[in-house]
Amino acid sequence: MALRSLPLLVLVGVALWESCLGASSHSMKYFYSSISEPSQGQPHFVVVGYVDGQIFTSYNSNTQRNQPRVSWMEKVGKEDPQYWDRNTQRSRDSEEVFRGDLETLRLRYNQSEGLHTWQWMYGCELQADGRKGGFMQYGYDGRTFITFDKERLTWVAPQPQAQITHRKWEAVPGFNQRWKAYLEKECIEWLEKYLSYGKETLLRTEPPEVTMSSRTEEVEDGMETHVCRLDGFYPREIDASWMRDGEVWLQDTLRGSVAPNADGTFHTTLSIRIDPKERGRYHCHVEHDSLPKSLDVALEEPKSSLGIIIGCVVAGLVLLGVIVGIWFFKRRQDDYRAAPRNEEGSSRSGQGSHQVL
Q1: Measured between alpha carbons, how far is 208 from 258 in angstroms, rounded to an integer?
Q2: How many CA atoms lie within 13 A of 64 on its CB side?
Q3: pTM
Q4: Which helix (H) or strand (E) is 181 found in, with range?
Q5: β-strands 132-140, 117-126: how paired?
Q6: Stretch 180-187: mean pLDDT
Q7: Quick check: 15 and 27 in contact, CB under 8 A?
Q8: Separation between Cα atoms, residue 106 and residue 83, nearest integer Å
Q9: Beta bridge partners of 55
Q10: Which of 82, 95, 103, 289 measures 20 to 30 Å from 225, CA to CA?
Q11: Hey, which residues does 149 pair with through a beta bridge?
């Protein structure tokens, strides 16, 4: 298995989990990853914690220490001086457990030594209406190994090698109940605590900047593609759609994923392909927590190649006129400077032997 496939389970899990979140929801997630054969200084064990998609704490086997990743986490240590030591010890204990798990799984899958990965991810979310959610999942070599179904209080094992783990965990009295209680209560309590620490950034709202672009397709049907770009908004949840005659229009619509910006805000795109004759029937409709009311942005006229050519020609003529004007101006300046020198010479010659002091 190639090293680049290591984050596969994490990335898929993040995408699936984020897509399930509704408006004004908040989430906390943890990701544990262990590699059997790290290389080039890469740690063999890593723990990363996220609140609302923002990394707030991390641990790795090289540093051997849980560390804050955002400034607002410094408040935790001030209120609870043992917080970082306590969590560091837990991460070190997990590191040893994961090291043993990798060897157990290698033997269970009858594999030779080499690069293998063992990952664990769990988290909870709180929606604006008070509903609570949670998940827990393990993955081996980038594939789902076993998943916790907290509603049915059972584990789902899609692979035969996971059945041993399934039977073992199901046999522990109260094991599933404790995990359900953690996801629905303790995890939510910590999420609310972290939100209070980082409220200046986590609970802020930034409105989206909406821009439109369009182009005419280089095909015989002459269809137009219009793109509604939303940038710089926070929180992540946003409701954007193309409207036709006041109704949501999904046909020939392509929705881009919501991606983060460097400053912590988000951006996304929404494109549509339409007949230019019906351009006036469409607009981009946007709803976001930062907006007092929804936005409706009309389509722009597409930029045709003829218009660009005409614009370039006009710009070229203007530039040529400027160059010619400058040339004439400099020429006149040269003539002006030459004339006084001739007059001065003739007047001096008329002075005869008068000495110039």
Answers
A1: 12
A2: 1
A3: 0.71
A4: helix 175-181
A5: antiparallel
A6: 97
A7: no
A8: 35
A9: 50
A10: 289
A11: 154
